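Fig. S4 source data, part A: sequence.
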Amino acid sequence: MRNSSSTLESLPTMFIMVGFPGLEAEHIWISIPFCLMYIIIFLGNGTILHVIRTDTALHQPMYLFLAMLALTEVSVSASTLPTVLGVFLFGITEISFNACLLQMFSIHSFSIMESAVLLSMSVDRFVAIYNPLRYTAILTVPRIFGMAAGIGLKSIVLMAPLTILLRHPTFCGHNILSHSYCLHPNLIHLPCGDTTINNIYGLFIVTSTFGLDSLLIVVSYGFILHTVLSIATGEGRRKALSTCSSHVCAVFSYYVPMIGLSMVHRLGYHVSPLLHAMMANAYLFLPPVVNPIVYSIKTKEIRRGISWILSEKKARV
């Protein structure tokens, strides 16, 4: 009983969230671009989901994977929305320990799912270019839904122990976060006790998900380039590569900010707290803002679906 009570006493009841350090007086104005980004995220990704759901012609592997990507991005953004707008709009900087763990679990779980979906999309592009005649036979709808279920289960199983491990270190009153939401790289720096196991398991998650996914994406694009270069005509090569352009943009918008944020956290106190906040926001907000815009512009089937929805609404009016 003594050990359990001392563990509970060592846990903070509240964490203090930070928006942009040094710019607290400007938070109400900073909230405007955040509100605009949330509108773009939910409206853009929601439109893509609606177009794919309603247009049966888009019930194909490529668009089903795109729907999965849009769904994970909406979920990540929904996980951050309460605290981000709470901090910038209403000045609510406190979050309970359990709520912080839940938010951390949600953000990282959906981020792991998003990385796995990007890998699945690269495999989809490879199959479409390497063996187009058997494309739909290989990537059947049941197989795609099985992949989605596996991705979701893997993310939950990997993240569950991390939330449990964070309940054991001693925090010694350290409860000020670097962001307006809870991220594991930030939380793991707050305890004053031994966090070796937490760090090792956190590194295992990063390498077995983001690290492995990014490596396999590079490998799949190596195979794609090899296949494309074997196509005889230049026009055929151009068409084959054009089908990958949107996915390449999605990969870069996801992994570049993630690598930047990881480097900032590794440098720790040697960088400005403002840079911490900016890199974390780029990591969480850039992909869900950029991707629906890119896919809407570069994918004619999505453009056609959006045009059809808009024309139908005008006809009703």
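Fig. S4 source data, part B ends here. The CA atoms of residues 37 and 285 lie 7 Å apart.
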